[in-house]
Amino acid sequence: MDWNHYRFRSTWSLPAPPAAVYDALMRAEDYPRWWHQVRRVDRADDTSGVISIRSLLPYDMTFTARQVRRDAAAGVLEAAVSGDIEGWLRWSVTPRGTGSVARYEQVVDVNKPLLRRLALPGRPVFRANHWLMMRSGHRGLTAHLQAV
Fold it and tell me: How many domains does the chain have?
């Protein structure tokens, strides 16, 4: 097993139609307004940017995200990431009742030296840290969508 390889999945039920959720997720530069662990998003161009995140543990992760798929009709946003993590991430938004469901998938290898050194003993803690970040993002997006 490669202790620096991670696969994450999260499912968020949201109180807004898919188009509104997709629009919010598409504007990564606005994430820091509603997702506090996303500390900074600096657009490089129309399809890429540098993102800095920090959850509960005292380390930052910085990576470049480059859009590889943007399909509003299918509700899919996908990006390749490189930097402290390398791999891909995808949002898929579908309707559910009067709201929607956003499914997040991420498959990455960790490149950050400190996290690589702590891979074996730290893995459960790193996974919990990611879970806490995703829980906060779900809460933040829910509040953001209700305020709009």
Answer: 1
